[in-house]
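input
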Amino acid sequence: MVVAECREYVAYLDDNMYEAYWNHVKYGGITIVCDRDTDKFVGVIGEKDWKKAMVGEKNGISEIVNRNCMTISPDHMYEEASYIYSQTEIEHIPVVDSEKNVVDLFTRRRAFYMHYFKDYKLDKMHYARMIMAAATMGKALGKKAISAIEFGVAGGNGLLAMQFHAREIGRILDMEIQVYGFDLEKGLPANETNYLDLPFQWKQGLFEMDFSRLNSKLEGAKLILGDVSETTVDFIEKYDPAPIGVISVDVDLYTSTLPILKMIENTNPERFLPRPYIYFDDIMGGYDCVGQNRALVEFNKRNEGNICISPEGTTLKIEYLTGAKNKLREWDVNVKICHFFNHPEYKTYIRKGNEQLPIVNAARTI
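output
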């Protein structure tokens, strides 16, 4: 048996070699080879093996598959993977159980997540940084779990990245990080009549979702389909999420952003961390009068003294989020912090360590 999220990397012994190769080119990584009758693991074909096969005289997958490849067991994935990666240069390792079922596909970035995190070498680093910072805040407040939400899933790359970061950071910090994705599924709604929706920038039908393909890759993230003005209304009651610490708003339109902000201001603050991180994908310099910029300004004005999303403008940046090197990227301007001033834990002290500043050198210096 092969788990659904690994299916795109699988070829069978009797598959056409050239079709399997083009599938490898399309999805990258390695090719996991299985027996068609049993759906059990046989071996792998790596990039070097494929290149040799394409210029050689091999006629089938059974002739090029490496049956003596390295695999790891699901019971000790991280320990086994870390050792193998420290000794080799390979990137992908199949996770195979005792019955030869393919249950996962491990990568070097999973084994050394914090190393890649600190060096800014992970996909969607702004998601990684926000989740790490929110989880660290939640940990300091004694939370066992937090939630991360992406509004505007589209093709799904962002949601899959959020799912990946949530899993790895949750493992490192020993915390459950729930992931939710909201999308209309059919692309952007109609927006030709409202100038606040930037119809010169967006049009109906952009960013349609391939639901079946994306859904097969979800390992725990929940996908919520429908108009965001409807799905946000009963989200808290229906799904009972852990305190929300991260929100990504990538719905493009002013009118689609409003229901999300309405959910934030109309929900009990205790359903959030006291200072959740919010990423607005479509905050743009020079467009403060329209789009997400406008929605953000209106939100802060309505909620003055109770809630504030800061920094409001497009020129100021969040320069530091817990655990990553202080390097600015083009998306930093889009990361905001939502301050719930009326949150019962807003004023709770969360810094750790010795905060005193003792004299470290008693010798006379002046």
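quick obs: The chain has a mean pLDDT of 90.
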